[in-house]
Amino acid sequence: MEKITPETIRHTAMLSRITLSPDEEKNMEKHFAALLGQMETLDSFDASAVPATAHILSAVNVLREDAAGEPFDREKLLSCAPERDMNSYIVPRVVE
Amino acid sequence: MIEKSLLEIKRDLAGKKVSSVEVTNAVLKQIEKKSDLGAYVTVCADEALAAAKEADKAIAAGEDKPLLGVPVAVKDNICTEGIRTTCASRFLENYVPPYDAFVVKKLKEAGAVIVGKTNMDEFAMGSSSEYSAFKTVKNAVDDTRVPGGSSGGSACAVASYQAYMALGSDTGGSIRQPASFNGVVGLKPTYSAVSRYGLIAFASSLDQIGPMTRTVDDCRYVYDVIKGYDKNDSTSYSGNLNLGEKFTSLKGRRIGVAKEFFPSALSPDIKSATEKAIAFYKDNGAEIVEVDIKSFDMALACYYILSSAEATSNLSRYDGIKYGRRAEGCKNLQEIYYKSRTEFFGPEVKRRIMLGNFVLSSGYYDAFYLKASKARTLIKKDFDEALAKCDALICPTAPTTAYKLGQKITNPVDAYLGDIFTVPVNIAGLPGLSLCCGKDSDGLPIGIQLIGKAYCEETLFSLAGIYERAKEAK
Fold this sequence. Notes:
Chain A contains three helices and two strands.
C-alpha cells in the first residue's frame, strides 16, 4: 500500500477545500495510515477479470418526460441563501 | 399510553378512546422528561399540536388514514418544509428546507403528527451519534453508553417512548446498528424501494430511508406507507416491490448461515445469542443452510472507499453560496469555500471528505476506487448466490453491544470495524432487518440481522414476526 506523506495530506486537503492545522495534518496522516492498512484486504483478489459496479440497479438513462413542470418557488430557494440581494445570490467579485 | 405500540395507539385513536392531542401531549411531555438523552435536535411542539388538532377533526369526521394522529419522529437529514433540517451539522444549523422529502409527504398524507427531528452523527457519518455538532445522544437502556449511529437519535427516541416510530437512514448500518444497540426494530429496505428525494445525500448508491419501531408489525406497517415509486428520484424502482412472502409457519423455510458471520472478534454473548436465534428457527421447522460469502472480509474496505468517494462528491455542494452557512469576512470566492468548509464541517466529516478525495485522486483511483467497485461486483454476486439457496440469511447486527460514550472517539478506524455485518448489505443493495434477540451480561440489547432478496421485505417481516411473537409468549 501507498506510504502517506504530509504532502499527500496537504494535496488532499486542497482538493477538499479544507484548511488543516499542523496538528490536524499529523492526525490525518495517522488516520490515513491506519485506514489504508485496513484496505489491504482488497489486495487479496485478482481484479483484472472482474467488471466494476458503480450502481446495483440495472436501470440506465432514467429520463423524465420532456414536459413543462412546476418549478421551485424562487423566493423560497433564495430565502436559504447566506447572502442575497433581491433575486440574486451575492458572492465576492470573481472577474477583475 | 406512550408505551403502546404504533398499531395499538392507532387503534385507540381510530376507536376514539384517546385523542391525537392527548397522545401528542403525552409524547411531548416524555420528550421533555427525557431531554438529557439528546434524542432530538428540534422539537416542533406547536406544529405537532396543530397537526394533532387537525387529525382529531378528521377522526371525528370519520376519516381513516394509516397514521392518522400518530406522533412520529424524523431523522434530521430528511427535509421537512418549514422545519429546520440540520444534519446535526453547524453547516446547516439554520437551514429550513423549502420542500418536504418524499417520505415526509407520505407520512403527512397518512395523517402522521411529526413531533421533531432526531439527532444523529453529522451528515450521517458515524456509528455512535457522538459526532453530532450539537449534543451527544445517549443510549436509551444505559445512558453511559452510545446509542449507535448514525440514526442514534431515532433509535433512542423510539426505545425511550419519545415517538411511536422514527424514520432513520442507512448507508452502512445506520438504522440497523442503533436499532440493535437500543433493542428496537429497524429496517434498511432494498435500495430503490424508498425514494431518497429530500434525503440529504451522503453516499447516493448506498443510502436508504427506513422505519425504526418497537415491534415488527409496526415496522411493516410504516414501510408500507413510505415505500413506492417517485419520479423525483431517478433510482426509484417502478416495478413490483412486493416479491416477499407472508407466512406464519417456518416449515419449508430455509435460512442461510455463513461461517464468515462468526469472526473470532465476535463477542461471546453475541455469538451465543445469534446461535440461540438460529436454533429457534431450526427447532420450529426451518432448515438451516450453510452458505459462503467469501468476499465478506473485503466489504468494510470496499464500503469506506465507495462511501467516502461518493460523500466527497455530494458534500462539494456545501460552498457557502446557495444555502447553509457562510464564514464571515471572506474576501474572495476561494476564501468562502475554504473558511466555510473548515469552520462548519466537523472532524469525522472532514476525514471522510479527505479520504474520498484521496481515493479518487490521480494516481490512486485504480488502486482504490476502481478496485473497490470491482470488489462490489464480487460481494453482490456472493450474496445473490447465497440467497438463491435460502429465503434469508441470518447474522449478528453488530459485533458488540453498545459501548461506553467516548470509548472509540479517539480511534475512528476501530469504530469502523463495528460495521462489518451491516455494510455488505448496502453494498449489495439488499434489505436488512435488525431485531432484538436477547441481552448481554450487562443487560444491553443484542440484535440479529435478517438479510433478504431484493424487494422481499415481507419475507423478513414474516421471519422476524414469528421470532418476536414466540419471544413475547415466553
